[in-house]
Amino acid sequence: EAGVTQSPTHLIKTRGQQATLRCSPISGHTSVYWYQQALGLGLQFLLWYDEGEERNRGNFPPRFSGRQFPNYSSELNVNALELEDSALYLCASSYEQYFGPGTRLTVT
Amino acid sequence: SQKIEQNSEALNIQEGKTATLTCNYTNYSPAYLQWYRQDPGRGPVFLLLIRENEKEKRKERLKVTFDTTLKQSLFHITASQPADSATYLCALAGGYQKVTFGIGTKLQVIP
Questions:
Q1: How many CA atoms lie within 13 A of A103 on its CB side?
Q2: Is the pLDDT of residue A98 over 80?
Q3: Would you call B83 helix, strand, or coil by DSSP?
């Protein structure tokens, strides 16, 4: 059984640009969770999608958004990038939180 | 506000001993609690889940306890090995599937 996959592995953007990160959950799982982990900090909950709908979001500004597709894969979009958005972005599948390898976003 | 506290400092332990990590929480009534292992630059790996009505859970060399009165979970690794060196995260899941993670405790097992 394939695990959670994320792409790209690394992403380098400049301030003000937009970033798109992708996640595919474990086959059969309908929930996707997104987290931000800045260096030296804990995981901060961003968004939860289930059955194609946004179910909950953390304390992040509206420029963090996303969606879930009919095949349950998900996309996280970060608009108007700021330097402090540099972090490891992790996606997890199902309420048991099986994590993907993450996308390292660097904003310069 | 909801708060999860883990030993923020690293825990050093001799190989073969039992490592005990603590997770305390306040202003929270979790439905369940989870422990994860995270290696540098990698995503966390799920280890164990314990529900609010369970006192203890075991998996191989791992044991988790959950005391909802004390609002505390203890995570034990028996017969620790250098390969157990990593950061261990505790996470609580409460209402509407929102999962809150602690900052983690870095465990170093010394040969």
A1: 27
A2: yes
A3: helix
